[in-house]
Amino acid sequence: MTPGTESPTADAVIDAGDVADPSASPAPARRRGGRAAVIAVASVALIVVAAVAFSIGRLSTLAEPTPTTTSAEAGFARDMQVHHLQGVELAMIVRDATDDDEVRLLGYDIATTQAQQAGQMYGWLAEWGLSQAGSEPSMTWMTRPALDGAAGHDDHAASDPGAHVPGAPMPGLATPAQVDELRGLTGVDAERRFLELMIAHHQGAVEMADAVLARSTNGVVVALAQSIVDSQTSEIELMTGMLAERTPLG
To answer: CA angle at residue 113 from 208 to 193, to 5 degrees?
Structure first.
């Protein structure tokens, strides 16, 4: 997948819904109503992004040989969809939990990008005539040997099939308890926890992308996986700095 692009129109609508007169003191009920409207608008925008990406994903596979249902390409498309959709969930949670513009913009960028990429991978599987649910446990494709001479961004993670167990949690995936914890936080506490979870989430996504780079020569899959490695590695650096700014010294 190519990285998702922001929707300036949707972003403008969302930001406009969050702007308030500094001299005014809106009633709590009104603020809650505004938040609900913001979430609704953002959710509609993400659905549109995913739908467009689905169409692009189907078209992008037309010139490639069709992968099998147990291929690394199919396993990556299924597992990375799950991984990305949790990234969207975490990003939308923090957008509702903080008024910090930097964190909210980051959350919006992550949500739109990962929704677009998830839609693209759904489109791949549809075009390949493969089920969205695999016949094998998740992560099975990552336990199989890499192609001869192939290596990913992280050689150890990408090429060592013993590093993973079929059906085990995907790298960097937040647990249900961690997601619930984030939902219960607000302000700087929410920002810090989100950044901690999303740094680990991105590191896991890079590991998965590296694994498929070591196991596939499919053009559209390789292009998407490399874009994930590049963009999420950059965002890890950004979020590490943001987390340090929000972590008390001593």
So the answer is: 75
The whole-angstrom separation of Cα 238 and Cα 224 is 21
pTM assigned to the model: 0.73
- Spatial separation of the C-alpha atoms in residues 41 and 35, rounded to whole Å: 10
Six-digit token pair at 106? 């980051």
Tell me the C-alpha distance between 136 and 138, whole Å: 6
- Decide if 107 is inside a domain: yes
CA distance 103 to 242: 9
DSSP 96-107: HH---HHHHHHH
Note whether residue 250 is domain-resident: no
Residue 1 lies in a domain: no
Query: CA 113 to CA 99: how far, in whole Å?
Result: 21
pLDDT digits (tens, 9 = 90+) for 33-89: 555 554 454 555 555 555 555 555 455 555 668 999 999 999 999 999 999 999 999
Q: Is residue 114 part of a domain?
A: yes
Q: How many CA atoms lie within 13 A of 103 on its CB side?
A: 28
